[in-house]
Amino acid sequence: MEIREKAVAARVESVKVSIVTAVRNNVVTIEDAILSVASQSYNNIEHIIVDGASTDGTIDVIENYQGKSTKVISEPDRGIYDAMNKGLRLVSGDVIGFLNADDMYTDDTVIEDVIHTMSVQQVDAVFGDLVIVARDNLKRVVRYYESKSFNADMVAKGCMPAHPTLFFRKKVFEKYGYFKIDYAIAADFEFVARVFGKGEISYYYIPKVMVKMRKGGVSTKNLKSNWILNKEILRACRENGIKTNLFNILSKYPKKILGLIKSNKIL
Is residue 63 part of a domain? Predict the structure, then answer.
């Protein structure tokens, strides 16, 4: 039994993980994201940071951590999804995840849990829960984003797993392609619709809060951004043959309200 356990552990450790972080002018928070990856207990990780030609000192912070396991490029891009695609072209890992410059993993075992679960369950993707926290107090949870109830049918309601907790095997991108950069806000949802909507990939939910996200993302800035988001969600469903309508999309908001209520229970 001990020999077999060692063999399993060795096989898991041989899986290389690529984390892609897109950033532009985020000097205040980028170091937290970098240290969050660097502190992971899992050893076989590369961190690819794609900087969009920052002018506020972000690149100076990033270069302090550039090394064998951290790849950095800094050049103008056409937005966050273009930057994420640039990162995807550089990855050499077997499993790929995305960590935004405002985000951080909740503890140092997140990647270890991801790879162990993928290995044991033999799935193409895994995901977990996320908490949105106040920018000035990372211990104050303002919303709990639970991915537990996600399934392929929920794409028609505009629902997706928390994207920073979502890890795919590289072969998923090789089969389905990258992010569509003509989406302003919802290219990550479109990719989820493209991949999960066909019911062709296997996935598993990890019952754990995996990521802290600072409040203030582009998709939740104001009513205008929410309107753009929902229009793009409708478009993504239409382009991927998923039948839905605006009423169906808006039905996801009671779940968001429950996430706000649940956050108060965590404090």
Answer: yes
Residue 3: is its pLDDT beyond 60?
A: no
The DSSP-derived string for the chain is: -HHHHHHHHHHHHT--EEEEEEESS-TTTHHHHHHHHHT-S---EEEEEEE---SSSHHHHHHTS-BTTEEEEE---SSHHHHHHHHHHH---SEEEE--TTEEESSTTHHHHHHHHHHHHT-SEEEEEEEEEETTEEEEEEEEE--TT--GGGGGGT----GGG-EEEHHHHHHH----TT-SS-HHHHHHHHHHTTT-S-EEEEEEEEEEEES--GGGSSHHHHHHHHHHHHHHHHHTT----HHHHHTTHHHHHHHHHHHHHH-
pLDDT tens for each residue of 57-102: 999 999 999 887 899 999 999 999 999 999 999 999 999 999 999 9
Same domain, 84 and 137: no
My answer on whether 150 and 21 are in the same domain is no
| pTM for the structure as a whole | 0.89
When divided into structural domains, the chain yields a total of 2
